[in-house]
Amino acid sequence: MRRLVVKLVLTILVMPAAMVLVVFGLSATWAVTVSAGPPGGGGGGFEGGRAFATALAGMAPLLVVGGWALVWRRHIRLTPARRLAVGALVVADVLLSVLLGAAAGAGADDDALLPVFLLQITGTPALAVLIWRNGPEQERQRLRAWMAAPTAFCPYCEGNLVGRRAPLCPYCGGDLSGYTLAGENP
Fold first, then answer.
1. Cα torsion at 56, 58, 64, 65 (round to 10°)?
2. What sign does the CA torsion over 45, 51, 57, 59 have?
3. Which of 2, 26, 99, 128 could join 65 via S-S bond, C-beta 3.0 to 4.6 A?
4. Which residue would you say has higher pLDDT here, 179 or 81?
5. 21 near 30, Cβ under 8 Å?
6. Most confident region among 3-7, 37-41, 145-149, 179-183 by mean pLDDT
7. Are 139 and 83 in contact (CB under 8 A)?
8. Which residue ranges make up each domain of the chain?
9. In this structure, what are the phi and psi dihedrals at residue 168, rounded to the nearest 5 degrees?
């Protein structure tokens, strides 16, 4: 149970961590553009910096999806079709980020770019979760395998001992050292 709670907390913390990295990148880009000179002036670095910052911000969903994949890597069954779908999602996100950056560099209005950007930062993680989700048949197979696994019960109190390797029952303290496998029914 503790592992599940830790994974859920890490899943939630990945989002602000990705945003911190993006804000750091945007701040660095802003510092470079300010030192390059004023917009429309001799420096000419502002629009290029704005394009880079916009493209970098568009990569935030990939950081979130990558963090989630690391946290849940043992639970995500990446079939060949899922690998292809995730690859297509990554390519689409990168292309959209580059296009948004190019539009920002060309002087597009921020109000026009914002809805596309918001759709991107919410849609990419949502699509990744939909791709990783098990279908009904996969869930049935998983549940059948779980139900077919042997269940161990304490011979003294009949407490469930699944996954226990200790020589004592956690419920009644009964001595289980005479049993060879924790997974067999006594």
1. -120
2. negative
3. 128
4. 81
5. no
6. 3-7
7. no
8. 2-141, 150-186
9. -120, 145
Q: Which of 24, 17, 1, 118 is nearest to 68 (CA)?
A: 17
What pTM was computed for the model?
0.65
Six-digit token string for 55: 């493209």
d(CA 44, CA 98): 20
Does residue 30 have a pLDDT over 80?
no
Burial of residue 81, with CB atoms counted within 10 A of its CB: 0-12 exposed, 13-18 middle, 19 or more buried: exposed
User: Please, what is the angle between helix 110-132 and helix 60-71, to 10°?
Assistant: 20
Token reading at 51: 């394009």
pLDDT band at 1 (very low <50, low <70, confident <90, very high): low
Whether 10 has a pLDDT exceeding 80, the answer reads yes
89: its two tokens: 């999602």
Dihedral, 86, 89, 91, 97 alpha carbons, nearest 10: -140
Cα of 6 vs its chain's centroid, Å: 14
Average predicted confidence (pLDDT) for the chain: 78
